[in-house]
Each structure stands twice: as structure tokens, then as C-alpha cells.
Amino acid sequence: MNKDIQPVTSVSNVPEQRFENPGLPPHTPRRNESDPKLKRRDSLIVTGIFGLSALASIAAVVLYFVLPSYTTLANIRLGNLVLGLGLAIGFGGIGLAAVYWAKALMNDEEMVEKRATSRTSPEDQAQAVAIMRQGIADSGVARRPFITAALGGALALVPLPFLVPLIGNLGERGGWDISRLKHTMWDRGRRLMTDGPHDMSRPIKMEDVTIGSVFHVIPEGLNDLSHAEGYAEEKAKAVVLLIRLDEKDLKEPEKSLDGIVAFSKICTHVGCPVALYEQQTHHLLCPCHQSTFDVSDGAKVVFGPAKRPLPQLPITVDEDGYIIADGDFPEPVGPSYWERKK
């Protein structure tokens, strides 16, 4: 055995050391415990924060109806901002008031409770009930009706900024009027235009669309509405991807225009723009949740949470060689909703 190596002392040979329980540190009273004016001030602060929460919820709902109609992108963003601020201040106020209430008004003395046995005795059960009652008494709910009323009001009003947009039949602000999703600007004879500013958008001829190319397309006349109400909504429904494949790669070439197909860009999962095309696999990818659609097979879903293929726009060619729509989409574009069977 090497003399430089010392044997390790077994833990069992180390003498046991015991420490006295130091107990709890002395309680430091809060300032308001000896000054009723400070306690009243803290009660008013808690009530005021709950009141601010309620007012923020009411203000968000009122402004939602006072603001201009939500048919332009700017108004939609403003409406979302108003509702978001109402929710943030409403929920945040409730949380802040609850924390201040606990810190300033509830009993803050530390207490020690010995661990109970597995089976709770009737005495322990009675003690638990007494502790719960003591907690309610410490919160001061019975003694502070204004705080309780403010809390109830804030809790009742805070969901309103979230619920109001979900209520149907609210005029032009309109709830979920799903009939607006059933039709787009596309109709028979309307030319397919490249998506871009008014002075750069142009109609598309068949010879412009080579195999493997992709065009982002809008209906003719859409840019004329760029400063009108409803433009953002119409464009969101009507945007299309125009793609040309070799006809031998298509499962149903008869549904194409010499290999040219046009599909809605709006994902059938939650409505994100589908715009990532993989030329070798003929797959379209939605960047939001990775739903993948096979363009060679009617844009059917091959991966991801989407459940329906992308709607296909029927197309043909006019006498001047420009690609035109042969009607509207055969089904509503965008996500599934409760009236659909699929």
C-alpha cells in the first residue's frame, strides 16, 4: 500500500452533531399596523387599482365601437391595439392589486405547522378549517367591502375586450359573418395580374409562365381599391399562387392549363400565407405551422395540421393570350369553420 495515500474515514465514524432550533425571527410590524390612516390609504390604493382595471376594460369596448370601421389595415391594427391595451391593463391591474393587497393588508406573520400524519384526525381537520377561516379573516374581505366590490367588478369586466369581437351580428364591425368568406373578387373573364404596386402590376400571358416558375397573383382591378374600405379584406381572400409544372408530373393534368395551376395562398389551417415552393418535390409550405401541400396532386395536404387542400382557382386563356379566371373558387378560402363538414 502506498504510504502517501491516507485511508478515507467512513461517514459513519463522524460524530453526529445536533443544532438547536433557532426558531422564527422576531416579527417586524409594518408601518400601517400602528397607523390606521396608512392602512386606509393602502385600502384605497387597492380599490383604485381594481377600479382602473375595470375602467380599462370598459374603455376598450367603447373605443372598439367608436373607432372607424375595420375594413382597412390601419384600422384593424388600431382596433387590435385598443383591445390589447384593454386586456393588458385589465388583467395587469387585477394582478397588481392582488399583490399589493397581500403585501400591505394581509397578515404577514410567519407561522410554523408541524407535519401531519398520513391519516388526518378529526382534530386536525377542525384545525384546517380554522386556518382557512383565519386566512379569510386576515384578508379582510368582510371588513373591506369596497375592495371586494372593486375586485368583483374588475373580474366581471376584464373579459369584455376579448369577448366583444367574438359576438356575432354587430353590424359592419361584424362578428363572424362567414358569408363574406364564400366569395372573392375572382369571376369569369377577370385577368390574373402580378402582385405589386399599381404601376408595376401587369397581366400574365401563358408564355410568361415557364415550367417551375411561380407568380404571386391578384385579380385585375384589385389595386384600384387600394385606398378604399375593404381593400385589405378583399386582397386577403383573393391572393393566388400561379405555378407551372410539366404535365407528366400532375396527377390530374386535365385540371390544369397546359400544366399551369392556380391555388389560393391562404392556408386552410389558420390562414397564414402559403408562399414557399419547393420545385423538386412540388410542395408548398406554410411557414407558420409547417402544413405542406402537394401542388402536383391538387394541393392536397401531405404534412402538418391543415385538414383540407388549398382551393384551386379555375383558369383559362383569353383571345389575347392572357390568363384569366374561369370563375370564383369552388369553395371558401382560408381556415375551416364550424359550418363546414370537413
Automatic annotation (TrEMBL):
Signal peptide region: none
Disordered, as annotated region: 1-38
Similarity-based family: Belongs to the Rieske iron-sulfur protein family.
Gene3D superfamilies documented for this protein: Rieske [2Fe-2S] iron-sulphur domain
Family annotation (CDD domains): Rieske
PANTHER family, per the entry: CYTOCHROME B-C1 COMPLEX SUBUNIT RIESKE, MITOCHONDRIAL
TM segment ranges: 44-66, 78-102, 146-170
Protein name: Cytochrome bc1 complex Rieske iron-sulfur subunit
Role summary: Iron-sulfur subunit of the cytochrome bc1 complex, an essential component of the respiratory electron transport chain required for ATP synthesis. The bc1 complex catalyzes the oxidation of menaquinol and the reduction of cytochrome c in the respiratory chain. The bc1 complex operates through a Q-cycle mechanism that couples electron transfer to generation of the proton gradient that drives ATP synthesis.
Cofactor: [2Fe-2S] cluster
Phylogenetic placement of the source organism: Bacteria, Bacillati, Actinomycetota, Actinomycetes, Actinomycetales
Compartments (UniProt record): Cell membrane
A GO CC annotation given for this chain: plasma membrane
Keywords of this entry: 2Fe-2S, Cell membrane, Disulfide bond, Electron transport, Iron, Iron-sulfur, Membrane, Metal-binding, Oxidoreductase, Respiratory chain, Transmembrane, Transmembrane helix, Transport
Species name: Flaviflexus salsibiostraticola
